[in-house]
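In this supplementary section we document a worked example of the pipeline. Step one takes a protein sequence of length 107 as its only input; no multiple sequence alignment statistics are reported here. Step two produces a three-dimensional model, which step three serialises into structure tokens for compact storage. The input and output of this example are shown verbatim.
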Amino acid sequence: MWGRLSRRTRLPNEWKTVRDWLLKASTKDTEDRVFRLLALKEVGATDAGNPRGKPSAAKKRNRTDGSWSQLDDKPGDSYANGQRVFCLNRAGGLARRTRSINAARGS
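The serialised model returned by step three reads:
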């Protein structure tokens, strides 16, 4: 994983602490949700036992037109679309040709 060799024996415990915090922390906007999912993937918490760590959790706030917004009460925007498409692609939760990708491309 990451870190100096001298610290690698401590990493599993530290990552468990990070994983636990990420699963408990609340989010307020798309940026929070995107970075939480990316961090959960990094620490190996994207399994079925962790609903917040599943890529499908990031898809929940997808609008009917295939877009996402920064805040739940705002219309979809290109910045939020780009964040979500990148995040879902990295987390393995997005097919190559979906309405989300088409919306992010503007097509």
